Amino acid sequence: MPTATTRILLADDHALVRRGVRLILDNEPDLSVIAEAGNGADAVEQARTHRPDLAILDIAMPRLTGLQAARELSRLLPDLRILILTMYDNEQYFFEALKAGASGYVLKSVADRDLVEACRAAMRDEPFLYPGAVNALIRNYLDRAADGATVPDKVITDREEEVLKLVAEGHSSKEIADLLFISVKTVERHRANMLQKLGLKDRLELTRYAIRAGLIEP
Predict the structure, then answer these.
(1) Strand partners, 128
(2) Dihedral angle, C-alpha 99, 102, 108, 109, nearest 10 °
(3) Which of 85, 174, 182, 216 gives the lowest tally of CB atoms within 10 Å of its CB?
(4) What's the pLDDT score for residue 1?
């Protein structure tokens, strides 16, 4: 009986990376890249159009990050499996990826070794964790057990995070309003709320915060 082919959406803002990853995946008889996207917002649209089985999302993309796109896709297409592809061996991103609905987190540096297995694991409904992530999970669990605490929620909402990313990318309030289909007044309200919540003064400080939070690359 022939193996069912997993239909994959691949999203990364670097065409060269997409080409390399596509070569790895298309080389496997049970994996097939059916759509590509160059930013997070396009990834969401492509997923709605093509209904893939699996989305592989780069963490640092324009418009929407991989994490923001993952949250949106988990809401829109609950059956879609999601893998996050990243250059960053970063615990915070890793935990955010799990919270966003991803079933795996693959480092680009070892994608040729790990990605195919991560795809198959995701389709079996199994999490894929690189070795450093396993250590992070154990350490995090032990720390929380020692403190008797739970992981705090994010300070800003998902929508505020979307606005923050676009502010940090240099978009005007009008451009942000057009991109997110909201009014300029709403954009300004989100910006004011973020400044107050984060204790920041201006756009420059918001941009620095966005870099630290991994929403844009420095």
Answers:
(1) 104
(2) 70
(3) 174
(4) 41
Q: Decide: 105 and 97 in contact? Cβ < 8 Å.
A: yes
Residue 25 has which token pair? 């995946």
Cβ pair 103, 122 in contact under 8 A: yes
Cα separation, 218 vs 214, in Å, equals: 9
Six token digits for residue 98 = 């799990």
pLDDT (tens digit, 9 = 90+) per residue, 147-176?
665 544 567 888 889 999 999 889 999 999
- The three-class DSSP label of residue 56 is strand
Residue found by looking up tokens 């324009």 in the block = 62
57-68 pLDDT tens trace: 998 888 888 899
Question: Terminal CA-to-CA distance of the chain, rounded, Å?
Answer: 50
Residues 210 and 216: beta-carbon distance below 8 Å: yes
Q: What sections of the chain are H helices per DSSP?
A: 15-26, 40-50, 66-76, 91-99, 111-123, 131-147, 158-168, 173-180, 184-198, 203-212
Structure token digits, residue 69: 């796109």
Spell out the domains of the chain, with CATH numbers in brackets: 6-143 (3.40.50.2300), 158-212 (1.10.10.10)
Identify the DSSP state of 81: E
Structure token digits, residue 99: 């919270």
What is this structure's pTM? 0.68
